[in-house]
Write a structure and sequence with these properties.
alpha/beta, seven-stranded mixed β-sheet, two-stranded antiparallel ribbon, 21% helix
Length: 399
């Protein structure tokens, strides 16, 4: 696709090359070739290693990252660019040439498929036309910028992607009419979804070349308080050793959640933690709920937020899903719900809005962050009663 054919990943690592100076657009001019890539964040480490050890001459890579304004620790969570001198692995046509690879991970795997098939333009970093003053040095050969709606027109431009990265098999992603099918992410400049997004793509065109990469392991993230509560509950239930220290992160200390339990959470079948009960083997096999005072005391966790809408004074379950088409969401749907391949599978719980005026109007509370780093920010908001992401109306100490 376009110039991408010149940048096929080499089969062997770069060996014996001479080091060269790092390059920047303002010092070295426009790149000889620019390639735009969009899609899954899950392959970031593999992608970065391929750039720095295979495609680039040693010591020539300058990296440009956005900083998520809601999470200063989320560097490169939406856009990244690498500017470098091509290595011998790229062949004589590109060896020694200035090359710019621009990568976008907003929207996840969905943006690695749909824009390519439909020929849509996306917001990509506008590196080549920016001066040094537009960036903050983040160390040797590393540059950052906090990109918000107010400055988005400076840092971003609409460009069609040359390649897409997906972290899930296309056959479970491209299911029109299901929660797995990619939905357009909102453009930062306009605040509106990417226009002309097709809803009927069921397969990749035969002209596309799909190159499989290594497998990935996904986990379930929870707030710190819930982690401790699960440990305390499972110690009382006898599924964790009594010697486990609350808050420990050793392998033997990890609480576990069953396949069926996670599926029930995702399907919206569990609306309140009061519904989750254990048999307390340390207290005459008494049946108690997960937010029982005994468990909370063991965990060192304060009484959680109680809703007021139902009149039952329940502790709401809050579920953070990724957006439609994001690999973490698609894979979880497939693994835990058999969805959408199984016609009888439960549909995952989908939010009607990410920030309703009344969080308790329907339980569970469901949110849908559009990028991976935002999921972490949301969990921090839930843990601390903050609202950095803008999704959390529930504050610490309120009822």
């Amino acid at each position: 696709m376009k110039q991408l054919k010149h940048l096929a990943l080499a089969a062997s690592l770069l060996m014996g090359s001479q080091a060269a100076n790092a390059i920047t657009p303002w010092a070295n001019g426009a790149p000889y070739v620019t390639v735009y890539i969009s899609g899954a964040v899950a392959q970031t480490n593999a992608y970065t290693q391929a750039v720095t050890t295979v495609l680039a001459q040693t010591g020539t890579v300058d990296t440009f990252n956005d900083v998520d304004p809601t999470n200063a620790n989320a560097v490169g969570s939406r856009w990244t660019a690498h500017y470098f001198v091509g290595s011998a692995n790229l062949g004589s046509a590109l060896q020694g040439k200035n090359i710019l690879l621009v990568r976008r991970t907003v929207g996840g795997s969905g943006d690695g498929v749909i824009p390519l098939v439909a020929g849509l333009s996306l917001e990509h970093l506008n590196i080549a036309n920016l001066p040094a003053s537009a960036w903050t040095s983040a160390g040797t050969q590393s540059w950052t910028a906090s990109i918000t709606q107010s400055n988005a027109t400076t840092y971003l431009s609409l460009v069609g992607s040359d390649a897409g990265i997906i972290a899930v098999d296309p056959y479970i992603l491209l299911k029109p009419g299901t929660a797995n099918y990619p939905a357009p992410a909102n453009a930062l400049i306009t605040g509106l979804p990417v226009p002309n997004w097709p809803t009927n793509i069921t397969t990749l065109p035969t002209a596309f070349v799909v190159n499989p990469l290594g497998g990935l392991t996904y986990g379930i993230a929870v707030t710190l308080d819930l982690y401790k509560v699960l440990q305390a509950a499972q110690k009382r239930a006898g599924t964790l050793p009594s010697t486990v220290a609350i808050g420990s992160y050793s392998e033997a200390s990890m609480p576990s959640l069953s396949h069926e339990f996670i599926g029930s959470l995702m399907a919206g079948k569990i609306g309140a933690w009061d519904q989750v009960q254990i048999v307390d083997t340390t207290n005459n096999n008494k049946v108690i709920s997960l937010n029982d005072t005994a468990i909370l005391n063991d965990a060192g966790v304060a009484q959680p937020y109680k809703e007021s809408t139902t009149g039952k004074n329940l502790t709401p379950v809050a579920v953070a899903l990724r957006n439609d088409g994001a690999a973490t969401f698609v894979i979880a749907n497939s693994v835990f719900l058999g969805y959408p391949a199984n016609a009888n599978a439960a549909s995952p719980a989908l939010p009607t809005a990410n920030d309703p005026a009344d969080e308790d109007a329907a339980l569970p509370i469901v949110k849908e962050p559009i990028i991976v780093s935002a999921t972490g920010t949301l969990l921090s908001d839930w843990q601390n009663g903050t609202n950095a992401l803008g999704f959390n109306n529930v504050q610490v100490g309120t009822s």
